[in-house]
Amino acid sequence: MAASTPEDPYEVLQVQRTATPDEIKSAYRKLALRNHPDKNQGASAEEAAEKFQKIATAYGILSDPDKRRRYDQGGFANLNPSDLEVQLDLSSLGMVNTAMAAIFNKLGVPVKTVVAQHVLDAAYMGNFKALQLQFGEKHSDKVDKAGVVFYELTVTEQHIAEGFAVGAHSIQGSRFKLLLFEQAVDTQWELLTQEDSQKTKKGMQMAGLYFFPFLTCRMGPKPSALETGSDPEAMLFKRLDSMQARDHVQLRPGRILVAVYGDNWFNRVRYTIQAVHTMSTDRSLAPIADTVQQVEAKLLRKKTELRQFESEYRQVQSQFETVVKRFNKEQKEVEDLIQIRDQAYLDLLAGSDGQAVVPRQQTSPQKGWLKGS
């Protein structure tokens, strides 16, 4: 769902065009907290909700390096419609709006959500209890819609150097977010990054936080039928548009805070979470990590190649469409001319009464007929 009249995101967040990511994040947090629907009821609720949508849209652009680069180069004309989607807070939606959003999502319209403010407040104030997560151990639990379960994981310099991941999945296919918080001061934690769960071929939802010594990317779902209905080739050319390099997270040895956030439309989410060390004792994950590294690099190259190929394809496609139009035009003109010709011959042979003239047959040739006399 996109804001009807998008405004300059820099003006919305009240930051300079040279603002750093931290300055953008700080401005967003301040404005979002002031205009959040949870904290504005009564007469000011509608105005606050509209402002919050604009703030969320602006932050969605400026917090994403690729979107920000494209906006800086060409403004909103350089962004895709999906780049302007407003992110919804499930905790602030009533039953009717939640149902509508769920229907739109099921029809293929991407509906993005944000973490509820009460979760961010709890982390920032240190008002939570975290479960202990150990490498190699799985933990299964459930979380309510817009609810959260926190986990603490202790990492060493070896874990950071060799790489590790924290992953979660829901066999029932329930949506969730995997959150990573950074410690600000003492017991205060701030949201650093998040991963939305993605549906797999087997129907379950999966999400992961990856801390590898190489580049990893996040990738959204395939383009929807609404996006490619009039342009089926876009299913290929737009397939890698959502592939974006993850920001490198600088970790320090010690404890990190992760959380599972319930992002399902109605029901609670049943999930399993685990932390895996790439170079674990049996080293069974090392070849898989190598495959991830190689495939990510190939797909990034393929993304660049597809952009070039699309330009070439569209040029040839345009030429082909021009030739097809010429073909259809020539075909129609030929058939029309033949029809006119056939009618003209019929008219020539027609009598005054409109009946065709049938030549009188002779029983025998006349004398001298063969000589032309």
Helix content: 25-40%
Order of helices and strands: HHHHEHEHEEEHEEEEEEHHEEEH
Percentage of β-strand residues? 15-25%
Main β sheet profile: 5 strands, mixed
What low-confidence regions span 5 or more consecutive residues with pLDDT below 50?
365-373
Cα-based radius of gyration, to the nearest Å: 33 Å
Shape: elongated
Q: Output the number of helix runs.
A: 10
Placed side by side, the strands forming the largest sheet appear as 3-5-13-7-8
Mean pLDDT over the full residue set: 82
Supply the helix-strand structural class.
alpha+beta
DSSP E strands, number:
14
Q: Termini separation (Å)?
A: 92 Å
Describe the structure.
This protein is α+β, with helices and mostly antiparallel strands. It contains ten helices and 14 strands. The protein has helices spanning 9-13, 21-35, 45-62, 65-74, 95-106, 117-125, 157-162, 225-228, 234-237, 286-348; strands at residues 87-89, 112-114, 130-133, 138-143, 148-155, 164-170, 176-183, 189-196, 198-199, 205-211, 217-218, 244-245, 254-262, 269-277. α2 runs antiparallel to α3. Residues 365-373 have low confidence and may be disordered.
What characteristics describe this protein?
alpha+beta, five-stranded mixed beta sheet, five-stranded antiparallel beta sheet, elongated, disordered C terminus, single chain, 10 helices, 373 residues
Task: Please sum up the structure shown.
With 373 residues, the chain is an alpha+beta fold.
SSE layout and pairing:
Elements: H1 9-13, H2 21-35, H3 45-62, H4 65-74, E1 87-89, H5 95-106, E2 112-114, H6 117-125, E3 130-133, E4 138-143, E5 148-155, H7 157-162, E6 164-170, E7 176-183, E8 189-196, E9 198-199, E10 205-211, E11 217-218, H8 225-228, H9 234-237, E12 244-245, E13 254-262, E14 269-277, H10 286-348
Parallel strand pairs: 1-2, 3-5
Antiparallel strand pairs: 4-14, 5-13, 6-10, 6-14, 7-8, 7-13, 9-10, 11-12
Helix pairs in contact: 2-3
